[in-house]
Every structure is written in C-alpha cells, then in structure tokens.
C-alpha cells in the first residue's frame, strides 16, 4: 500500500511538472506560481489525512460515539462560524499575518490532541479556525502579491 501511494505521488508530480514545462515562460518574466500551485494541493492534504485517525485516537482515549461526534461538530462548527470573518480579518490585519496565524493555531490544535482530557480536546475549535484560514488566507495572499508585483493576470488562471 505504501509503495503504491509513493509511486502514484511521484508519477503525479512528474506529470504535473511536465504538463506546464512549455508554459513556464511568458514574456520577459517567469511565472512564479508554479510551486505555489503544488503547495495549494499539499496544504489541505495534511488536514484531510488526519480525519480518519482522529476518530480512532478519540476512541482509544475512551470516548463514546456521542463525545467523538461533539468533538467533530466543535471543529466543523467553529470553521463555519469563523469562516465568515477570517477573510475580512485577513484583509484588515494582513494576509501574511493570517497565514502565520494559521500555522500557530494549527500547531496548537495538534498539541491539544495529545491530551486525553475532553476539555483540552475541545482544541478542535482551534482546528476549525485554522481550517478557515487554510482555505482563504493563502490564496488571497497570493492574489494580492501577484497584483502588487504587476504580474500578468493570466498567470493566476490554471
């Protein structure tokens, strides 16, 4: 299974890299977003891959299905609530600062998962805030920097 996944990932990487080889140069400047596109695909992978393992971890801590469900709802609910305001906060406080805030909140969220105490595990709320930042701050920072540097608008389209 591990061999298949690494083979598939390396093949996907090679196809992705070769697909844009002829499109890398456009005019006098080089398209700076090639690696950024790969990062946009890899950043959420860490968030998605942990989901199935969280249920197992919580069950090993001795929580029943109801408690585990409440923990997941806390994470998704906080993402729903904070998702409505993180974009405007990123605009006001700065997009780079929002990306750094994502890193800090996600690290804190991961740290809380090492505790078997239910109240500490409510750090899933931090995970929801981090998820909201993950899916808004990085792309808005990319677009803002792209426009500020005067790059070709066509480079943003995939």
Structure description:
Mediates high-affinity intracellular uptake of the rare oligo-element molybdenum. It comes from Aegilops tauschii subsp. strangulata. It is a multi-pass membrane protein. Keywords: Cell membrane, Ion transport, Membrane, Transmembrane, Transmembrane helix, Transport. Its main location: membrane. The relative contact order is 0.13. 74% of the residues lie in helices and 3% in strands. The protein has helices spanning 2-19, 34-60, 65-83, 86-93, 95-112, 118-121, 124-134, 137-148, and strands spanning 25-26, 29-30. The chain contains eight helices and two strands. With 158 residues, the chain is mostly helical. It has a domain at 67-146. The chain has a two-stranded antiparallel ribbon. α4 (86-93) packs across α5, α5 (95-112) packs antiparallel against α7 and α5 runs antiparallel to α8 (137-148). Residues 1-11 and 20-28 have low confidence and may be disordered.
């Amino acid at each position: 299974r591990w061999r298949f996944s690494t083979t598939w990932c390396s093949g996907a990487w090679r196809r992705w890299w070769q697909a844009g080889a002829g499109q890398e140069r456009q005019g006098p400047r080089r398209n700076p977003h090639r690696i950024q596109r790969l990062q946009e695909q890899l950043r959420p992978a860490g968030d998605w891959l942990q989901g199935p393992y969280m249920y197992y971890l919580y069950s090993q801590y001795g929580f029943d299905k109801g408690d585990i469900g409440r923990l997941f709802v806390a994470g998704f609910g906080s993402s729903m609530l904070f998702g409505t305001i993180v974009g405007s906060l990123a605009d006001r406080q700065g997009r780079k600062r929002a990306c750094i805030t994502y890193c800090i909140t996600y690290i804190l969220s991961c740290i809380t998962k090492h505790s078997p105490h239910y109240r500490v595990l409510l750090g899933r709320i931090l995970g929801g805030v981090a998820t909201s930042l993950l899916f808004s701050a990085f792309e808005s920072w990319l677009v803002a920097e792209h426009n500020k540097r005067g790059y070709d608008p066509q480079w943003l389209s995939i």
